[in-house]
Amino acid sequence: MRGLLRELLELLLPPACAGCGAAPDADDAVLCRACDARLPRLAEPRDPRPPLPVLVSVAAVSFEATAEDWIHRFKYPPPGLAGLAPGPEAIVRLLAREAAGHLPEGADLVVPVPQHPKRLTQRGFWPAGKLATEVARALDAPLARGALRRVRDTRSQTGLGRRERAHNVARAFAARGPLAGRVALVDDVTTTGATLAECARVLIRAGACQVAAVCAARRL
Asked: How far apart are CA 81 and CA 71, in angstroms?
C-alpha cells in the first residue's frame, strides 16, 4: 500500500530535487547536481578486504554525512505523509545501481540479505529486497528473493563490535534450495561484513560458485 501511495505522489507532484526541492537538471534525475555532489562517494568502491568468503564487495558511498541521512530516512520513514516521500528510496536505489556497476563481473543470480518475518511485519517493507530489485535490473540478472531466509530473529547490529556482530548472525540464515553460478548478495549498508560473510557461507554451501556483495554504502 505504501508503495502504491508513493507512486501516486510521484505522478501528482512536479519533478523536483529530493535534496533541496529545486528543479532537477533532467526530468528523471533524483538530485540536482549540487545535492548529488554532496554524496560522499567512495574513491575506491571495491573493499580492499572483503569479508571472506565474499570474493568482492562493492559500495557506492561512505556511510556518513548525507548518505547516512538518506539511508536512515529510507529504512525508517516517519509516519504519515512525510513517510511517503519518494526521494529517500529513489536515492538509495540509485546508490545500489551505482554500486552494481562496480562489480568486475556480472552475476547469474541476485539475492537480497533476508529479513526476519517479524521485522517485515514491524517495518512493512524489506529494504534489501527493494535494492536487490534495482541491482538485478542493473546487472540484467534474475532476482531470487527467496533464495535465503532468516531463521533466527537477531538483535540489531548497531553498537556491536566485530566479534559480537559475527556471533549475533551465526547460524541465522538458511538456503531454501540448491544454487549454482555467481551470486550478487545485496544489502543496504556493510560495516564489518559479518552479515555478508554469514550469508555467503550459506550460499556457497548451497552450491554457489562465488559470492560478490553489492551494498549502497560502506562504513569506513
From this structure: 18
189-219: b (≥16 Cβ within 10 Å) or e: bbbbbbbbbbbbbbbbebebebbbbbbbbbe
Q: What angle do CA 62, 203, 137 make, to 5 degrees?
A: 55
What pairing do the DSSP bridges indicate for beta strands 210-218 and 182-190?
Answer: parallel
Domains along the chain with CATH numbers: 42-72+95-218 (3.40.50)
What does the pLDDT look like over 169-179, one tens digit per residue?
A: 999 999 999 99
Closest CA relative to residue 110, chosen from 41, 201, 208: 208
* Cα–Cα distances in angstroms (integers) from residue 193 to residues 32, 122, 161, 212, in the given order: 32, 25, 12, 12
Contacts of 63 (CB under 8 A, 6+ apart): 71, 189, 191, 217, 218, 219, 220
DSSP string across 44-56:
S-B-SS--TT-SE
Q: How far apart are CA 118 and CA 74, in angstroms?
A: 19
Q: Write the pLDDT tens digit of every residue in 45-97.
A: 999 999 999 999 999 999 999 999 999 999 998 876 555 677 899 999 999 99
Record the pTM.
0.89
Beta bridge partners of 210: 182
| pLDDT score recorded for residue 104 | 92
Strand pairing category for 148-150 and 173-175: antiparallel
Q: Which residue has the cell 562465488?
A: 210
Q: Residue 89 burial (CB < 10 Å; 0-12/13-18/19+)?
A: buried
